[in-house]
């Protein structure tokens, strides 16, 4: 089957209150979805519909719970081919740990990297591109030296796209290019998850490199942290946000001291002790939810 042909829209899937419920009910729809999915090709790799659904389900079972920035499995399947980079990022990440598809990973690394670095592709400014870039930062492809790790570039691009799409202002329904947009609870939740994901990934990379984070905990992040008990965000994302918030404050205190000529604080040990205590307290308060 020609991968360039557009598949018929997958019939509407039922809406459920939680991602777990949606995943449990998915088996009832898999056969129908397979009938409407088409084969997909990226350079030398072609996957049939049953292979695509197998890899996507494997990603949602093994990877998505660890960094849940994507929509539920049924929602993703409905638009599985909407963004080429996101689809093949999921396939490449999954194939690394898949007994059945591990041979695909090496073949897909360079094509996926090319997609991620193509700033002039028609889909390069899409919301799904942000999701794909963040996933590539969390599960990077192998690299020999830190200087060759593209994660900081992917993170920077994802962050800039997020700012342009207004993800840092979740209650302002505006698009930087297209103007006002209509409120949509499901879309708003995805945008919030992506922005928290940007905050978390920026902190991970800044900690690794010893550089300032490109995303500061502004109103959007602070409101998610403050409203953790009633938040709709997945628990892992909220926990990561708590850790990243303390980490950002620690990096600021230790490496951006306005009273110091170099920016480095003169007396770091008391600060390290203080922030260590904060992390310990947070770990104890969240331990029952991990």
From TrEMBL:
**Xylanolytic transcriptional activator regulatory domain location, by residue?**
56-213
Q: Name one GO biological process term.
A: DNA-templated transcription
| Protein location | Nucleus
Q: Name one Pfam family in it.
A: Fungal_trans
GO CC annotation: what is one?
A: nucleus
UniProt keyword Zinc present: yes
Keyword annotations: DNA-binding, Nucleus, Transcription, Transcription regulation, Zinc
Q: Which GO terms describe its molecular function?
A: DNA-binding transcription factor activity, RNA polymerase II-specific; transcription cis-regulatory region binding; zinc ion binding
Q: What is its main location?
A: nucleus
**Keyword Transmembrane helix applies:** no
Protein name as it appears in the record? Xylanolytic transcriptional activator regulatory domain-containing protein
Native source species: Aspergillus ibericus CBS 121593
């Amino acid at each position: 089957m020609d991968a360039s042909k557009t598949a018929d829209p997958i019939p509407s899937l039922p809406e459920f209150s939680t991602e777990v419920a949606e995943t449990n009910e998915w088996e009832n729809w898999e056969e129908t979805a397979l009938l409407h999915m088409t084969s997909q090709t990226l350079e030398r790799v072609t996957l049939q519909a049953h292979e695509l659904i197998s890899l996507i389900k494997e990603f949602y079972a093994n990877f998505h719970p660890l960094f849940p920035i994507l929509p539920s499995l049924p929602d993703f399947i409905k638009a599985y081919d909407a963004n080429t980079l996101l689809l093949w990022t999921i396939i490449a990440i999954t194939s690394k740990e898949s007994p059945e598809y591990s041979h695909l990973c090496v073949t897909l690394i360079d094509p996926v990297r090319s997609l991620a670095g193509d700033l002039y592709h028609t889909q390069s400014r899409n919301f799904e591109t942000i999701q794909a870039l963040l996933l590539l930062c969390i599960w990077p492809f192998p690299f020999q030296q830190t200087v060759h790790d593209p994660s900081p570039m992917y993170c920077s691009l994802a962050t800039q796209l997020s700012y342009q799409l207004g993800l840092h202002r979740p209650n302002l329904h505006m698009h930087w290019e297209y103007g006002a947009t209509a409120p949509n609870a499901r879309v708003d939740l995805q945008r919030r998850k992506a922005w928290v994901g940007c905050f978390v990934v920026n902190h991970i990379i800044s900690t690794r490199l010893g550089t300032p984070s490109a995303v500061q905990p502004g109103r959007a992040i602070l409101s998610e942290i403050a409203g953790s008990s009633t938040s709709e965000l997945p628990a892992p994302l909220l926990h990561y946000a708590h850790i990243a918030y303390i980490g950002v404050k620690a990096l600021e205190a230790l490496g951006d001291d306005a009273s110091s000529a170099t920016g480095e604080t003169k007396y770091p040990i008391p600060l390290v002790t203080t922030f260590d205590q904060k992390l310990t307290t947070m770990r104890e308060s969240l331990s029952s939810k991990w």
